[in-house]
Specification:
heterotrimer; A mainly alpha (295); B alpha/beta (252); C mainly alpha (333); B: 252 residues; alpha/beta; Rossmann fold; six-stranded mixed beta sheet; four-stranded antiparallel beta sheet; 9 helices; 24% strand; C: 333 residues; mainly alpha; ABC transporter involved in vitamin B12 uptake, BtuC; two-stranded antiparallel ribbon; 75% helix; 1% strand; globular; binds adenosine-5'-diphosphate; binds magnesium ion
């Protein structure tokens, strides 16, 4: 019985893990390239959720159609914030980048709040489900995971098969070295930041396909924190590390929930979240560069 | 008993062997020059001695005590002081505060008050000739001034062994002569053993060191009295590539 | 040992401002709440500055200390109110518990997080904060997410009259005292070996080690001091004043960010900075809440971004440069 429950939940965890993975790739990319932790990461996911909401409720499209819109919005925000703010903070002390990215997150939240209001919203999109003996999986979740994998693969191809992708990797490795080799590092910074934000906003679209309720301006915070755990698990500078770490995180989160739910007198959901952070903590203790990290 | 004894020190960075099986004994009161082309492992050897990272192999003894696994901050109070090839001032602090840090945490650690450290700092700042800059933020000094400040900071530690990493690179030949005289005098006055590492500036090595160790590709090539070491044909081959560099300098 | 009084001159302007604030709040009717709020921000800034200002490490989880301090006071009042005759001692027990809990978490963090640098340190601290919060909620420790309410206990021990006095007046006065203490400790550290060590660590940690500085030891000293002061502020300004605590209200990263904003606005690593920053931040927040309720954050966020980019050294940082070489220099650090 419990094993079935566990197996069923692990399937959901794996599917959600794909979305988690995608949602963290942007964080890792920004850290890898700019050496900045984007503490305002979650609010960009929230922006993706609202892009979806707008597409679904205003234009009546299916949620996945919001993906191109999310990419455009995300990259536009990325370029805008890069050229107005981030560009000036490349070599700045840590507290400034932490503070500024946090402030950017707050700005996004507030702007969205004044545009859409603070209440919880959601949408309804049903396209059938897969019924297994142990669990039932809505097709929306399957689409969201497949979409995440496709985008992650596209990023992989871009990184490895294009000149500019190679340049980005060079900058992650050693920005000074790359500059010496003739890479226009400043353009790479801008582009990577924009792409990272684009990825993050797109992951927000898939996230709503997973959990189509609870869309509100402050939903991002919890994803910032999850993304930290996942990013560290994945080695912090590696977007693919982040993707696979997302899978692991989805599995652990959903598996642990089932187990905690067996303990009487506790709140299993909170315990699961707590576990994630103790995991992070232990991880940093044992191997600060991440389990899947290179060195 | 040697002041410092290195036994078969090896330090690798990934596949690169930066220091390869180097053994060395330094007696109290000696002045030694370590020379070798860029990348031959001199700075790495210093880092291993001062405890920046442990060696993969080998042991380090200071005054007979095995310090191989001692953290860096425990070595300084024993009497190992150093300067850095690329100066590392505590930029936002004044020159006086920088040098006072040396006095505070060096061999006098725990024996002197903050105010006394300030006085000690003044003394060494004057010795190296930076008194005009003592209240400036150290980050605003010129590279050569930073090097002088680092010498003052290291001397304020009252070290038994002073490791200087290209402290004279970038200086005028005239200033180098002054510096050599200064170091000789300091060595007498303060009773410290100076390992001066100089690269390319043969004038300084020849003028200062009694003994020279030549490093090449991480290994010890020659270890001999200065005159003998510097006239060794191998030195001319591998290290200089030309007979005697006069007052030339190069940042490595 | 002779004490050099001149070293403590910079405290004069600090204490003058605190005294003025206190007198204004005490004698001008209707201003006490505002002054108490300002004192709260200044005290937090001052406490936090000891660690971040002096070491350059950004402890994003600083609010953990404030939160645990609040819990310390809550536990003190809730459990020790059952012992008759303790009277005012339960408040001091609350403070001790606040120190105890914050010490535990500081040890945990210092043992692990202080080994890390930069990004990893910031993330680890956030992790501890969230981990604790959700552990309390999940394992239903100390009332779990329902929190603790102890106004009843407080009135049982002191009677309603005194309880009101304690929560509306003495809790705030205590915050002033903590702020003054924090300022003193800050100067004391700056003028001692600790200050030199921390400056060296902030500027170049590896070089500091080679110069003989036990970096872990000094970072831990600053971390603990800063954490203790934060816990005391939490115990008084939240624990005693509000007489309730909920994990979702106290383990909130926003408060850490407020601390950073205060310190950075005023001038990071300076003594007067947190005070000036606390005043600017507190007053403008208060004022914006009156003239544009609901819009504060929308306005604040871009302003903060601009200020940080344009004036990373903060108000006192700029002033300090201006007064360098003048007679004011010895008073402003
Ligand atoms: N921290 C490090 N990581 C990787 N390689 C290093 C590091 N430090 C030094 N090296 C390498 O070790 C070799 C020796 O360097 P170094 O000791 O600085 O030489 P020298 O001081 O004689 O010029 C060089 O090839 C250098 O690139
Ligand atoms: Mg070198």
């Amino acid at each position: 019985m419990i094993l079935e429950l566990l197996a069923g939940n692990l399937i959901h965890g794996l599917l959600l893990g794909c979305v988690y993975g995608l949602s963290t790739m942007g964080l890792s990319l920004i850290f890898g390239v700019l050496k900045v932790i984007n503490v305002g990461h979650g609010p960009f996911i929230m922006v993706g959720a609202f892009v979806t909401l707008a597409m679904v409720t205003i234009f009546g499209t299916a949620p996945p159609v919001a993906i191109p819109a999310a990419l455009v919005v995300g990259m536009a925000l990325g370029f805008a914030f890069f050229y107005t703010v981030m560009r000036r903070l490349i070599k700045a002390p840590e507290f400034t980048t932490l503070l500024v990215t946090f402030a950017i997150g707050i700005l996004l939240q507030e702007v969205v709040k004044f545009t859409f209001g603070a209440e919880y919203r959601g949408y309804n999109w049903e396209v059938g489900k897969i019924i297994l003996t142990i669990t039932t999986i809505p097709m929306t979740k399957v689409y969201a995971s497949i979409g995440s994998i496709i985008i992650a693969l596209l990023l992989y191809l871009w990184f490895n098969k294009t000149r500019i992708g190679t340049a980005v990797r060079a900058v992650v490795e050693d920005s000074e070295g790359a500059r010496v080799c003739g890479v226009n590092v400043d353009r790479i910074y801008a582009l990577s930041f924009a792409i990272a934000i684009g990825l993050t906003v797109m992951s927000g679209v898939f996230l709503t396909m997973f959990i189509p309720v609870g869309i509100n301006p402050y939903m991002g915070g919890v994803y910032t924190l999850k993304a930290f755990v996942i990013a560290v698990l994945g080695g912090l500078t590696s977007p693919y590390g982040a993707f696979f770490a997302g899978l692991i995180f989805g599995l652990i989160e959903n598996g642990a929930y089932v187990l905690f739910a067996q303990i009487p007198g506790v709140a299993p959901f909170s315990l699961t979240v707590s576990l994630a952070f103790w995991m992070l903590f232990l991880l940093l203790l044992i191997k600060p560069t991440g389990l899947l990290g290179a060195k | 008993m040697a002041l410092l004894r290195l036994e078969n020190i090896t330090k690798r960075f990934g596949g690169l062997v930066a220091v390869n099986d180097v053994s060395l004994e330094i007696e109290a009161g000696e002045s030694i020059g370590i020379v070798g082309p860029n990348g031959s492992g001199k700075t790495t050897l210093y880092n291993v001695i001062s405890g920046v990272y442990p060696p993969e192999q080998g042991r380090i003894f200071f005054e007979g005590k095995d310090i191989t696994n001692l953290p860096a901050h425990r070595r300084a109070p024993m009497g190992i002081g150093r300067t850095f090839q690329i100066p590392r001032p505590f930029s936002s602090a004044s020159v006086r505060e920088n040098v006072a840090v040396g006095a505070m945490f060096g061999t006098l650690s725990g024996k002197v008050s903050v105010d006394e450290c300030s006085e000690i700092a003044e003394h060494y700042i004057e010795l190296v000739g930076l008194q005009a800059h003592k209240d400036k933020d150290s980050g605003t000094l010129t590279p050569v001034e930073k090097k002088l400040m680092e010498i003052a900071r290291a001397l304020a530690m009252k070290p038994k062994l002073l490791l200087m990493d290209e402290a004279m690179a970038g200086m005028h030949p005239r200033d180098i002569d002054d510096m050599v005289k200064f170091l000789k005098k300091i060595k007498e006055d303060e009773d410290i053993t100076i390992v001066s590492m100089v690269e390319h500036i043969m004038r300084a090595v020849a003028g200062f060191a009694e003994r020279v160790m030549v490093m090449y590709r991480g290994a010890k090539l020659i270890d001999a009295p200065t005159a003998k070491a510097l006239s060794d044909p191998r030195v001319i081959d591998v290290y200089l590539g030309r007979p005697t560099g006069e007052g030339e300098d190069a940042e490595g | 040992m002779k004490i050099n009084i001149a070293k403590y001159y910079p405290l004069i302007p600090v204490y003058a401002v605190y005294l003025t604030m206190f007198l204004v709040g005490f004698f001008v009717p209707g201003l006490w709440q505002l002054v108490a709020l300002l004192a709260f921000y200044c005290a937090l800034g001052q406490s936090w500055n000891i660690f971040m200002g002096m070491t350059g490490y950004v402890d994003f989880g600083y609010v953990t200390f404030i939160a645990l301090g609040t819990y310390g006071m809550a536990l003190g009042i809730t459990y020790f109110s059952q012992f008759p005759g303790l009277g005012i001692a339960i408040i001091f027990i609350g403070l001790l518990l606040a120190l105890f809990l914050s010490t535990l978490s500081a040890i945990l963090e210092a043992g692990i997080a202080l080994r890390l640098r930069g990004a990893y340190f910031a993330i680890a601290c956030i992790g501890i904060n969230e981990g604790l919060r959700h552990l309390i909620e999940g394992a239903k420790i100390w009332g779990g997410s329902e929190g603790m309410l102890y106004w009843k206990e407080l009135t049982e021990v002191f009677g309603t009259e005194t309880a009101i006095q304690l929560t509306t007046l003495w809790a705030d006065i205590a915050v002033f005292i903590i702020a003054a203490m924090a300022a003193f400790i800050n100067v004391y550290y700056m003028r001692s070996k600790i200050g030199y060590a921390l400056t060296a660590i902030r500027e170049d940690e590896d070089a500091a080690k080679v110069m003989g500085i036990d970096t872990t030891k000094y970072k831990t000293i600053a971390f603990l001091t800063s954490g203790w002061l934060g816990a005391l502020v939490g115990a008084m300004a939240w624990g005693l004043k509000l007489t309730h605590v909920f994990p979702a209200d106290v383990f909130v990263i926003h408060y850490t960010v407020e601390c950073i904003v205060i310190v950075v606005l005023g001038g990071i690593g300076t003594l007067l900075g947190p005070l000036v920053g606390g005043l600017i931040y507190g007053l403008s927040k208060y004022w914006l809440a009156i003239i544009l309720p609901g819009f504060q954050l929308l306005i604040f966020a871009p302003i903060i971004i601009c200020i940080i980019i344009a004036f990373p050294e903060g108000v006192i940082g700029v002033v300090k440069r201006r007064v360098k070489g003048t007679r004011l220099e010895r008073y402003i650090i």
